[in-house]
Structure formats: structure tokens, C-alpha cells
Specification:
The structure is a single chain. The chain is α+β, with helices and mostly antiparallel strands and 140 residues long. It is built from 2 helices and 5 strands. The protein has a single domain (15-136), classed as BirA Bifunctional Protein, domain 2. Strands 1-5-4-3-2 form a 5-stranded antiparallel β-sheet. A hairpin with a 2-residue loop joins strand 3 (79-81) and strand 4. The radius of gyration is 15 Å and the shape is globular. 24% of the residues are buried.
Length: 140
Amino acid sequence: MRRFAGGGAILHRNEITYSLACSTNEFPAFRDITKTQQLVHEAIILGLQNLGINAELERKETERPDPYFCFVNPSKYDVVEDGRKIGGSAQRRKNKAFFQHGSILIDSKITPKSRKEQKDRGKIINSLILGFEKRLGITF
């Protein structure tokens, strides 16, 4: 299936998918496409760091990201851990609003495979929410 916001293919298995829709009139910081991606990924990084994950923002330009598979190569402003892409997104804009969706890989480093997995997912999601609140100055 091709998503209207674009982006490469993702195997929806060990990941958390998110989406964000917002008016750029309400949040002027989101008027620039690249800046929006950077801000959202910085919020995700704060949430992951709160869980002890060594996540950071990719700073290097890549020659060309893989157009078909999202997590093959990191692009500038993707979320990486030790050079490995663990978070990416795509964005669509129309009428002074945007929609951004993305995925954050979760694996055994973040959550153990056990009966507590649902609870651990909740902990991850709560930590991501805190990252958004801290970076963007908003409350959910």
C-alpha cells in the first residue's frame, strides 16, 4: 500500500507507528517542512533517551535514501542509534496544515518479549509523549 504522505515500505512488526496532524497557523515552528521533521524527531529522541536508549539525530546528508525501504539507510534528521536508523517519517502539507506519520523501531533493547510486552509498550508510549511535551512545550 502506498501512503499518501510518501516514505518507504515498512514491515509493521516490532515498531510503534505514530501520526501527527497540525495547523501551521497554531504552531509557527511547523511552517518549514525540514524544521518540522527535525522538531518531531528531537521529541522522539528525548522520549527514547528517557528510556536509556542512545538515540540521536542523524546530522549527515546521505547521497540518496532508499526509495523503497524506510529503514535501510538513515537520512538527515532521522532518528539513529549507533548509526542505525531506528526512526523515520514522511510528511504531507496542504492548506496551512500538515500530516506527518512515522515509525519507531522497538526491539529487545527497548522491550523484552514477555507477557509484560503490552505494559512495556505503554511505558514507551508514555515516555514518547513526555518527549513531545518537553520539546514542543505542549501538554497532552
